[in-house]
Amino acid sequence: MVVYRPVVKGKGIRGTLPLFVGSKCSHLWESSLSHQGDLCYNEKRTLLSERNHGMANHSQGKYWSPSLLKSRGWTNELISTLLPKPRYRRVNGRSIPAWHRDDVRAAEETEVFRKKARGPKPGGQAIVAARSAIEEVVRMLDDLWSACPGSSDDPARILAGHYHRVILDTLPSSAKGRVLRPTQVSGYLTRFLALEKRCDGSQLPGDLTHFVQTGVWMGEHLTSPLMGEIKSRYPHILLAAAAQAIREFTDAQPEADLTALLRMDPFPAKQLLSRPLGYLYSVCYVPQAIRTSLQVLMALNPKDEYPEARAMSRHFVLHIGGTNTGKTYAGFQRLKQAGTGVYLAPLRLLALEAQEILLKAGVDCSLTTGEEEDRREEDTHVAATAEKLDLKQVYEVAVIDECQMIADRQRGYAWTRAILGVRAPEIHLCAAPEAKDLLLRLIESCGDSYEVELHRRQTPLLCMSHTVDYTRIQPGDALITFSKVGVLSVAEDLRQAGKEPAIIYGALPYATRRKQMEGFLEGRMEYVVSTDAIGMGLNLPIRRIIFMDTEKFDGVERRELKPEEIQQIAGRAGRYGMYDRGYVGATQNLGAIRQGLNTVVPPLRQAVAGFSDLVLMVDFDLLEVLTEWNRMPTADPYIKLDISRYITIISKIRETGFSLSKEQELRAANIPFDETEEPLRELFFRFLRLYQQGETIEQPGFPEGRPRTLPELELFCRKLDLYFSFAKAFGCPVDEDALYNQREDVAEEINEILLHRLKNNIRFCARCGAALPLHHHGRLCEVCFQKQRRAAGGRHRESRNR
């Protein structure tokens, strides 16, 4: 097929040039080149390359691309050394460097180019001859190695055998390589011969690769003097190079298991031509060895990691229902009757509430959470957060609350661990409906028995038909927003209108949150302003839940509320025994709330599995062990815990210069605190430094001086929590009475701010002083901001008219 392309001269088209397209017509193109004057062979190849790369016009033919240069024998080193800076052309949307052909031709006449340019690739009969030559070399080298005596237990002999095997395996591929210049062959073989006396482990892979590239030449010159030296010294060269590589490796990593590396199956021999021995150990051997150790120590199925629980005959009672359906109440009734028992909660406040309920019922109950403990002598029961379950203790009854948390990537492992490993013959699980199938699957995999109790609301939950003005709320209403600033701003607006609200949000210290809840329960406060912290088990006599927003920031992005979140929060309305019905409304976007209430939440599919302390028994670096554990497969329906926080904290500990044991590193990474908050991070490392120096870990002091702000007091509470958690993790003495008193003092001061000095602790418009609305990011309210814009626009128009 013939295609005519336009020939451009000046600014217009001055004719056409025939192009012969298709493999069958390639000879026509070749013949057409013969009529282009006295072109050299390379110039004809250039025109052929232009055809292949779509260089259609005359000006493009003056500039040659990297692919064309490579076909002429250029290397990257030669291009950077001999050619000027390239021009860049757009080809198929990409910027391609190109050099003027006159510059290229001039450089090709230099002595440097003639010495270093690559030869052509063989083709046709040349490849057949090259393969035959390679076969001769392979036979020769294999005979030389077989004739060399040596012990099969000698590490140098084993490594040299790997070198020999990879050379033989790679030699056939060199038959298709470019023809080497004599100077290149001489240099490559001379460097190989020199390995017997002097070997650099980092350069060894390159020297072996170059030796392989000379395979065709060696096969064609078997009787040359240089080949005579190769024949007489080949095995000894490999043994000497292997011995030197081993010395360098053991000097750099004396703790490494060299024998295990050399005998690993399969050995990564191909990597020897590109990587030093240390790389093979770190990247190839260590991960495989860790996985092997973990497979021996830890079961593929998480249920098999708890043999004591598997040996028991356990019976589960599943309490399935939505929020406010009496699930937890049913579990508590049985827990009160038990001789011994444990209650596991998602929040410290719920664990504290459970302890108080059991104490009032005459049951001796201790409390243990990540931030505080209340151990009581002669206790029979324990109320704890899910992470604090003692797997060694045997209980008569266990109650595990909010079991739908099992799918949470950060904390779900604690519920998985508790359900699979708690040692109790009777276990009550309280969960939302979407968790039912997953929980039954886990129970059945353990071979335990179960029964299911479905709980339904006793008071109907109704969605309101119109939006609500939040300044006109009624006693018993709870306003829900999703930021601390939003909660405080709304609370101040209500207070200005003469309505006293209770305030609840996640950063609020637990003691203060308890005081606020007590104020609502006792009737001193008739309203609640809260974040979604209200949804997780806080039992308050709320009549109406009113959403002020339908979006939230989840730590990664701002997104719409999920149906399960809407249902969890909305279910707090209409507490049984106090109201005939509960109501759910919104100040805006009521349709989204109604849709969320009516949406069927899909069942949970996966349970999050964490690692056990068995990772400490693997004889490798802890970070490497955790990384490999995370890569290992696990049985369905489990997924691995997100270990990014562990990796971050342990890495930072090492970067800061601490030298801890693996057990200490893991204990430190398990301490619950927000490592992204700089004051807490600095305090953590100060504690760590004092501990390593053998000095006393002292309780943080109360902020002194000017009136303390709400953020300062909240930060101080988090510091106290970090102090307690660190001291408990590393066995440091704690004056728990002093700590309790300090917490109560701070909680009281925060409560005082929330009740009487809130306006001084939230953000207001810098111009008019109005409380800023929800999720507002600027210094001015919307009205003042628009006034400022209009004023600025007027000044701009005035200056432009001038």
Determine the N-to-C terminus distance.
Answer: 68 Å
Structural class: alpha/beta
Biggest sheet strand line-up: 9-8-10-7-11-12-6-13
- Give the strand tally: 23
> Can you give the mean pLDDT?
84
Rg for CA atoms: 38 Å
Shape: elongated
Low-confidence spans: pLDDT under 50, at least 5 residues? Answer: 1-60
| Main β sheet profile | 8 strands, mixed
Question: If helices are DSSP runs of H or I spanning 4 or more residues, what is the number of helices?
Answer: 30
Residue share in helix? 40-55%
What percentage of the residues does DSSP assign to strands (E)?
A: 5-15%
List the topology elements.
Layout: E1 2-9, E2 12-20, H1 26-33, H2 41-52, E3 63-64, H3 66-71, H4 76-82, E4 87-91, E5 94-100, H5 101-108, H6 111-116, H7 125-146, H8 155-170, H9 182-194, H10 204-213, H11 215-220, H12 225-252, H13 258-262, H14 277-297, H15 307-310, E6 315-320, H16 327-337, E7 341-345, H17 348-360, E8 365-368, E9 373-374, E10 381-385, E11 397-400, H18 412-421, E12 426-431, H19 436-446, E13 449-454, E14 461-463, E15 477-480, H20 484-496, E16 501-504, H21 510-521, E17 527-530, E18 544-547, E19 551-553, E20 558-560, H22 563-570, E21 582-586, H23 590-598, E22 607-609, H24 622-631, E23 638-640, H25 644-655, H26 662-669, H27 678-692, H28 710-729, H29 736-756, H30 782-801
Parallel strand pairs: 6-12, 6-13, 7-10, 7-11, 8-10, 11-12, 14-21, 15-17, 15-18, 16-17, 18-21, 22-23
Antiparallel strand pairs: 1-2, 3-5, 4-5, 8-9, 19-20
Helix pairs in contact: 7-12, 8-10, 8-12, 9-10, 9-12, 14-24, 21-29, 22-23, 25-26, 27-28, 28-29
